[in-house]
Specification:
alpha/beta; two-stranded antiparallel ribbon; porphyrin biosynthesis; heme biosynthesis; EC 4.2.1.24; ALAD
Amino acid sequence: MANNLHFKRHRRLRSTNEMRALVRENHLYKDDLIYPLFIIEGEKTKNEVPSMPGVYQISLDYLEDEMNELQSLGVKAVILFGVPNEKDSTGTGAFHEHGIVQEAIREIKSKTPEMLVIADTCLCEFTSHGHCGVIHDGDVANDESLKLLADTAVSQAKAGADIIAPSNMMDGFVIAIRSALDEAGFTNIPIMSYAVKYASAFYGPFRDAADSTPQFGDRKTYQMDPANRLEALREAESDMDEGADFLIVKPALSYLDIVRDVKNNFNAPVVAYNVSGEYSMVKAAAINGWVNEKELVMEKLTSMKRAGADLIITYYAKDVAKWLDE
């Protein structure tokens, strides 16, 4: 009777750890990881973000130790967010020569030049109103904001940033920044565009960390509707046409279909942003003993690689690097 059975025996390839490793289709590597850092003004300051246990706002004097730890773990890239003491209506601190992000870039590159530094390029952390551009009549003025974003990108490149990562979602932001970088002589600095950025509820803890909560309204007129899929392809296509070198999809976990769509349609590295809300949910469940943190995080990040991500921005970068060594 057994000789007449013709079903497939898929379990043959799952029989042992070694067999499963041999046929594994997707892998998570340390080289895939980008670690976000929140840089605050002042000295000897290290503030844990209440909604993100294990994540800190740190002052410049902690950066060397931070870089040494990351290098010892094998994490080779960071993305910087600034938390300034003073804000104004146009986000002057974002493009000031001695802004907190610019100073952090110089500090990192002077002490650990081999660390890859990505500068988040936006105004929301620096504006008194918390929006990503200049406000006119209660709305973000798109074209006027482009000039300030371009100035920010150039100032970050001058400070030594290896990659510019504009996250503002203004129309035309990639070409405005690419043109400004080229005119300033930074033709070799790539742009990691937040090409597909949804108006997501998963950003709440980040706004605590970066002190960037909008003081009125929301960001739905410039960030994308979570219900939309084809819009993501239009956004990514525009950014590629304007000169983007990387394409970010943010958030990652609820938008893995979009990660795959972007990977299938564009010949550029795709970056999944494992955002603050995703981090905080897992961390809270782990602290309460409800989940196995390591297994859950590794499964989650592997799913992003399976969906098509080449790189992952994640607050779990340090932990993942340690787990990969085990």
